[in-house]
Amino acid sequence: MNTRTRVLIAVTGVLTLAAAAVIYVGVAGARNQDTASAGTSGAVTLDGPRLLFRSTADADRGHVSSVAAADPGGARAVSNLSCSRVYAAGGTGICLRPESGLTTYQLAVLDGRLTVTQEIPLVGLPNRARVSADGRRLAWTVFVTGDSYNGGRFSTRAGTLDLTTDNVEGTLEDFAVTVDGKPYKAADFNFWGVTFTRDPDRFYATMSTGSHRYLVEGDAKARTARTVRDNVECPSLSPDETRIAYKSAIDGDPAKGWRVSVLDLASGTVTPLAETRSVDDQPAWLDDHTVGYALPRTQGHSDVWAVPADGTGAPRLLIPEAESPAALRS
Amino acid sequence: MYLSTIGRREHPGGVSKKSFALLGGNVFALGTVSLVTDVSSEMVTAVLPVYLVLGLHLGPAAYGVVDGLYTGATALLRLVGGYVADRVRRRKAVAGLGYAMSAVAKLGLVAVGSSAAAIGVVLTADRTGKGLRTAPRDALITLSAPEHMLGRAFGVHRAMDSVGAFLGPLVAVAVLAFVGSSTGIEGFDAVFVTSFCIAAAGVLLLALFVRDHRAPKPPSGTVSLRAAAGLLRGTGVRRLLIAACVLGMATIGDGFVYLLLQDKEDIATGWFPLLAVGTNLGYLVLAAPLGALADRIGRLPVMLAGYGALIAVYLLLLSPLTGWALFALTLGLYGVFYAATDGVLMALAGPLLPEALRTTGIAIVQSGQALAYFASSVLFGLSWQFWGATTAIAIAAGTVLAAVAATFVLLAPRRKARP
User: Fold this and answer.
1) Do B55 and A298 touch (CB under 8 A)?
2) In the prediction, which pLDDT does B15 show?
3) How far apart are CA B162 and CA B34, in angstroms?
4) How far does the CA of residue A49 sit from the closest CA of chain B (Å)?
5) Which residues of chain A are within 8 Å of residue B383 when distances are taken between CB atoms?
6) What distances in angstroms separate CA B405 from CA A109, B236, B347, B349, B391, one per listed residue?
7) Same domain, B172 and B81
8) Which one, A195, A239, B110, B262, has the greatest CB density within 10 A?
9) Does residue B253 sit at the A interface (CB-CB below 8 Å)?
10) DSSP output for A5-63
11) How far is CA B211 from CA A168, B30, B95, B137, B193, in A?
């Protein structure tokens, strides 16, 4: 092959590949344009009884949507607000979303009509979001390294916002921690997956240190956290505050996946739920007897499933093309 | 001290010092392939954490699983690839296989969807491709440039390589901006598909323009496992390998340096990838001139000076300095460190290795250094945890100093006679 032929092949090949990339990017852009303009302003409010979620349907991916609690497979209301994660309770919503491009993220506080009332910059990639039952406190989790995948390890930060005082607690890592009743200090604390109690100062969360992933009970006012149990991640407190739904790594090894269970706080009894697939989500209580969670289906698509909280029955598909479920009570 | 003559190759032929033009076209061809490939791989590196967390909603521990899967797994494969390349005398083919594997892995990211385990497998394939291609590529560089110009050759190659690394994240951000969706699957898929197209172009350029260097078939037995093991019996190679390991042990990993910077300044995470961009900027500007300097004044002093820059980086992290001055100085010196060490070590290694076993030898040196680097990162992580950042960095700085002294002792040429 002479040089001329080689150059000809190279130019043709590179131009073909470039054209393929440009066409793909163009089509993706056009598709996203349609998605971004989906939804109707005012279509979704935080009044119950409804189920709020983030849509994963192609037509309106990312848009905050809702369905009637009594008919979750029925008509969906789609708002024009896009979030990466969403949750709501007590008339307040939390929306974690990118600010612009790849650079920064923010937490948007939503009122009952999904109007953004406050924006707080987040240092890190947002992951979990919760609101207390009375709507006065918000919690979130971010990954703070943002590092390339081949260096360093992940680390998380969980923060809370008190809407009554506007006080932001950027990270729980400075709290006084006791492990099994003894004061404990470590540089590798990671907190994630906060869930509030009815007393808005008290919360549960995951705290990891070393190879342990503890359930901790925290007090935001006293700035303390104490361990309750090991191998509990992403806790979620039941509406009657007697039980915690959570995920735990199978055999304590995250590589094997996660199982959802319910812990009875008074007796310490653990009930594995009927869901046997791996659930990597913070469960949400749909009512005192039902736990909901998202399961990814194919890339970019998830469904919300529900399973009885007492270990009986079988999981059922609750809302197709949805994730980040939250039960709006009234 | 005869420091300035150490590692220097005397060439009374009177070659112009700036004669980059004399480098073989093959070096530029290999450099172009690396540039294109690095655009592709750095695009993915830049968006991957966001993809895993925001695109797929992977939780903290799943992210950790993906992150840790491939680590150290590809070192053995690099040795196998190096040996096979020497054995069948097809360095270009083995390098091409590595490039192709990484290219296909980009499409794999689109195909496997949201399973953390499957993504881990795809990333491992990507890293395996990188492991396979590095040693044959570097061996081809040493065989494509005259020996007294190896510093320049590697300098040019590494500079082109880092231009790619520099452009990659920018291309990724541009694609995301065009799609208009920075967290939607459409945007990520567009980045991965674009990354594949660019990587495929790299493979095409390699196939068309890189010439394999196939010397006459060496006598039988020259390339055998025994001969490969025999490489380590030669004092020169053994000393170089030990030095590479010692220096690898003294390097704590980019991730940590950037984390420590972030710790000091609490910058927004979104800016985090830009720290690597800053380092790469220094690297790409300085790699070629420092390579040429190494050819002139000796490769060892330039490499040791590079580790001096690393000590300065660690000391800056300990210093009370803050703000933009800290960032500019730290990232600049970190770029100097890479420019003065990465390619220069290969330029030092090339001439010590017999041509028939050069890929194997380069693979051994690179694997030794990579394993040492992995060990030091783990140890640094532990010492950070137990003793705090300040003590850990101080220890790291001390380790580099000791490693520089050890390397000097190991690699300084023995004087034949006292004057």
Assistant:
1) no
2) 43
3) 9
4) 26
5) none
6) 57, 17, 20, 19, 21
7) yes
8) A195
9) yes
10) HHHHHHHHHHHHHHHHHHHHHHHHHHHHHHHHT-S-TTS--S-SSEEEEEE--GGGTTE
11) 61, 9, 12, 11, 28
- With a cut of 50, say whether residue A60 has pLDDT above it: yes
With CA atoms as reference, report the closest residue to A216 among A204, A224, A202: A204
Which among B163, B188, B211 is the end of a domain?
Answer: B211
Least Cα separation, residue A179 to chain B (angstroms): 18
Closest CA to B291 of B20, B6, B12, B13: B20
d(CA B29, CA B38): 14
- Domain identity same for B46 and B91: yes
DSSP letter at B187?
A: H
Determine contact, residues A217/A228, Cβ cutoff 8 Å. Answer: yes
Task: Identify the three-state secondary structure at position B184.
Answer: coil
Q: Are residues B306 and B404 in the same domain?
A: yes
Residues recorded for chain A: 330
Non-local (6+) Cβ contacts of A251 within 8 A are: none
Instruction: Return the CA Rg of chain B.
Output: 21
Query: Rounded mean pLDDT of chain B?
Result: 83
Please compute Rg for chain A using Cα positions. 22
Alpha-carbon distance B45 to B172, whole Å?
9
Whether B52 and B86 map to the same domain: the answer is yes
Residues B182 and B240 placed together within one structural domain of the fold: no
C-alpha distance from B83 to closest chain A C-alpha (Å): 26
What's the CA gap between A112 and A46, in Å, rounded? 5
Q: Within 10 Å of residue A48's Cβ, how many Cβ atoms? A: 17
Q: Please state, in angstroms and rounded to a whole number, the distance separating the CA atoms of residues A29 and B415.
A: 66
**Cα angle for residues B14, B16, B20 (degrees, 5° grid):** 135
Range of the domain at B382: 226-413
Main-chain dihedrals φ then ψ at residue A237, nearest 5 degrees:
-85, 135
Q: Which two three-digit tokens encode residue A206?
A: 């995951």
On whether any CB of chain B is under 8 Å from the CB of A159, the answer is: no
Contact B45 A296 (CB under 8 A): no
Which of the residues B33, B35, B44, B63 would you substitute to probe the A interface, choosing the one with the greatest number of A C-beta atoms within 10 Å?
B63
Q: Which two tokens mark A259? A: 């199982």
- Looking at the predicted structure, is the pLDDT value of residue B184 above 90? no
Whether residue B186 lies inside any domain: the answer is yes
B400 vs A265: CA distance, rounded Å:
52
Mean pLDDT of B176-186: 75
Selection from B29, B298, B307, B261 nearest residue B148 by Cα: B298
Instruction: Note whether B212 and B137 are within 8 A (CB).
Output: no
Residue B122 lies in a domain: yes
Could you read off the pLDDT of B363-404 as tens digits, one per residue?
A: 999 888 888 887 887 788 778 777 878 898 999 999 999 999
Whether the bond into B216 is cis, omega within 30 of 0: no
Task: List chain B residues with CB under 8 Å of A103.
Answer: 268, 270-271
Shared-domain flag, residues B155 and B36: yes
Number of domains making up chain B:
2
Judge whether A224 and A207 are in contact, CB under 8 Å: no
Please state the ipTM of this predicted complex: 0.81
Count contacts between A and B (CB, < 8 Å): 226
Tell me the per-residue pLDDT of A87-127, one tens digit each, with 9 for 90 and over.
999 999 999 988 765 567 889 999 999 999 999 988 778 88
| B349, B362 Cβ separation under 8 angstroms | yes
Q: Model's pTM, two decimal places?
A: 0.82
- Best mutation target among B50, B181, B271 (most A Cβ atoms within 10 Å) is B181
What is the token pair recorded at A215?
A: 């359930």
Q: Is residue B1 part of a domain?
A: no
B255 contact residues in A (CB cutoff 8 A): 145, 147-148, 151-152
**CATH code, domain with B139:** 1.20.1250.20
